[in-house]
Design goal:
CATH architecture of the largest domain: Roll
CATH class of the largest domain: Mainly Beta
Strand content: 15-25%
Helix content: 40-55%
Distance between the termini: 61 Å
Number of domains: 3
Number of helices: 8
Largest sheet: 5 strands, antiparallel
CATH superfamily of the largest domain: Calcium binding protein CcbP, beta-barrel domain
Radius of gyration: 22 Å
CATH topology of the largest domain: SH3 type barrels
Order of helices and strands: HHHEEHHHHEEEEEH
Length: 243
């Protein structure tokens, strides 16, 4: 097999992986990623379709895979596995226990699909990484995963919040929008607060109680970049919750 065919096979595999991991992707995005023409991407998509991959072309939107279609587990390279193993050690020092739990379970599943030799090397590496004990484990919250799910499902959250500004405790319904990790190494959720009728930042370690409601909301038109840019115009850094 010549080098051009090897490159194309690699690109076809990568396109298939992208289609599975993203809801929809455009031919222009793929052409830029692989540094080829849009026409080449059209040909690649046709090859995949001829191979039996159920690709759906949505007019003026892009490509997506038929709901329920799954490709076999991805085989991780040694370098990719090492990156995941290294990150796992750092995750244990993060401030939310739910993230630690979910990441550990995910890495366990990933280890299960590693080749025998890569798995042995990954296990060796995991025993050769240490984090300074001076950096304490700061599991000060446990709701990050729940909020992530509400954000992607567009579900309203009901929270009981202890404000650091005036020491008040309030009950609010919020529409989760994005996350922010601040200088104090704490997670904050940026959300549209129905009580204040505006966007606010809530520290997860100050949420005393949280509940996912059945109420849904429309996706926010505001982008995270726009929110942070506006915040930085008023403050030197966007770390002040203003909740």
């Amino acid at each position: 097999m010549d080098s051009n065919n090897i490159k194309r096979l690699s690109r076809l595999t990568a396109i298939l992986t992208i289609l599975q991991t993203k809801r929809i992707v455009t031919s222009l995005t793929l052409s830029k990623k692989f540094d080829v023409s849009v026409r080449t991407i059209y040909r690649d998509i046709k090859v995949l379709e001829q191979a039996g991959v159920p690709i759906i072309a949505e007019e003026r939107k892009g490509y997506t895979l038929m709901e329920g279609y799954r490709i076999p587990p991805v085989i991780f390279t040694e370098s990719e596995a090492n990156a995941l193993i290294t990150t796992e050690q750092l995750i244990h020092k993060n401030s939310d226990s739910s993230l630690t739990k979910e990441y550990t379970e995910a890495v366990t599943k990933i280890k299960a699909v590693l080749s025998y030799s890569t798995k042995n090397k990954a296990e060796l590496l995991s025993k050769r990484i240490a984090i300074s004990p001076v950096i304490a484990i700061r599991n000060t919250s446990s709701s990050l995963t729940m909020i992530q799910n509400a954000l992607t499902d567009f579900k309203v959250l009901k929270i009981t919040y202890h404000s650091a500004q005036n020491n008040d405790i309030t009950i609010r319904n919020i529409e989760p929008f994005a996350f922010y990790y601040n200088l104090q190494q704490c997670w904050l959720v940026i959300a549209f607060c129905l009580l204040r009728n505006d966007y606010r930042m809530f520290r997860l370690n100050r949420i005393l109680k949280i509940e996912t409601l059945t109420i849904t909301f429309k996706p926010h038109e505001l982008t995270l970049k726009d929110f942070l840019d506006t915040k930085e115009k008023n403050f030197s850094i966007p770390d002040i919750p203003l909740s």
